[in-house]
Input
Amino acid sequence: MKRPFFWRGVPVLVWSLVVSSVCFSHPNTGVFDPYTFGAKGDGHTNDTKAIQAAIDNCHRAGGGKVILHSGCFVSGTLYLKSRVALMVEAGAVLRASDNLDDFPITPSKYPSYRGTLETNKMLIYAEDANDISIGGRGTIDGNGDYWVKGPYGSPSFSKRPRIIHFRGCQNVRVSDVTLYNSASWVQSYQLCRNVVIDGITVDSRENKDIEKERYADVPGRNTDGLDLVDCQGVRISNCYINCGDDAICLKSLSPDAACRDIAITNCVISSNSSGVKIGTETSGRVEDITVQNCVIYDTRGDAISIISVDGARVERINISNITARNIKGCAIFVRLGGRNRTYRENARINTPHLKDVLIENFQGTRIAGAIIAGLANSPVENVVLRNINVAFEGGEKAELSWRDIPEHVQRYPNGKIFGTLPAYGFYIRHARHVTLDNVHFRFINDDERPAVLCDDVAYLDIRSLKAGATLQTAELIRLVNTRDALIAECRPTAPVAAFLSVYGEQSADIVLLNNLLRQARRSVIFEKPSMQSILTEVAFK
Output
């Protein structure tokens, strides 16, 4: 029996297997190399046809990998197909073409944002595909600067290509790649199921200086970092997202569809709009959502935004273990409104609900405020905030706490909807069953507004509140038309004129229990002396 021949200590047979495994065009490996189909990878030649040929052949062969390596591949729209993994290897770049004709309008069985049966302008598209993925350590470049500054002259949203757009797909995975410099939404997933997005980097932020006006340097281009539209069974993890619009955004465009069963974890986020957002488009249902272990910083909008404004039923939302820094909008923005926009022809508008929200273990600094606000005939319900520690920006005068706050039922919802808030911490209006438990509020710049202001709130629990004040602060907590309220084991952390004030003829059944009020000159002030009977106070012995 002949002994096997060895080279560098390894049997030649093993070396032959290694070599064949990287021979990308080998017909039996399930790996397809666009160079074999004529790609140049030189950063100038349009390689759309070659890459698409590799995808098509991979699909016809029953599936496998299409690998971009060792080059910069310029391309128009690529159509990813079932059982195909598009891999952009480390050092390789897939870059969007700068020719509008390379991104055709594609007929679709699914209605678009505006309800038409088409899809428009994207670099990588898939529809009704199963078992698809995008991966590798390379970069997918949307060429966004060109689309705004180039000959198309800052074209409309419909003429700027997204990087990834998947519709009606199942078993989707996007991992490890860098999505760079998009001209529109970086990635959008509509009506997809069983989606995993893991370890990606989104680097697509114009107007990067957070201390300037939002569009101080260049026009915006709606570069949402990641949009889920009526998707189910989604896991987003270990991602870094720095983008020019909402970073992670959950939407519902169809009144009979749902965005549900979604877990978002271990992400680092910075944005020129909101960090993690439900909405703004909210027609159907958004439910069973968990967000945990995320860092949000240098964000122009709100850190956490939970919205229903187009009739959606939003419920069972869990947010935990969040740190936030330098947030120009709200730390937490919970809003039920009545914009009632439709996205489908002759679509009905559902009866909206926003309830069962749990937010806990949230810490932040340099933040404008926080809002929980529903409508008089449609309140937000069952919101629990626990272990909240925030240093708000502050710096406002007491008279701003008395300004009339318009309802703005139909206005675009964000943390600046009401202007300067009447409280430096939480402003709560039109809500039922709200709990603040173990919350610590303070301000960076002296602020004379109350820490918490509640207006038309029923079944309110405030427990273990510790909040800062100034000598010009009239009260630490103000209740207006608030019923069935329990305020227990709270304390001001600085001298304040009064701990609590009560206003409004609908205020009733208020209990103070074991609050430590040595820093308050007065325990309670009432709008009218006759209101004293609505309050019961039990103090430490």
User: Anything to note?
Assistant: Confidence is low (pLDDT under 50) at residues 1-24. The chain is about 5% helix and 50% strand.
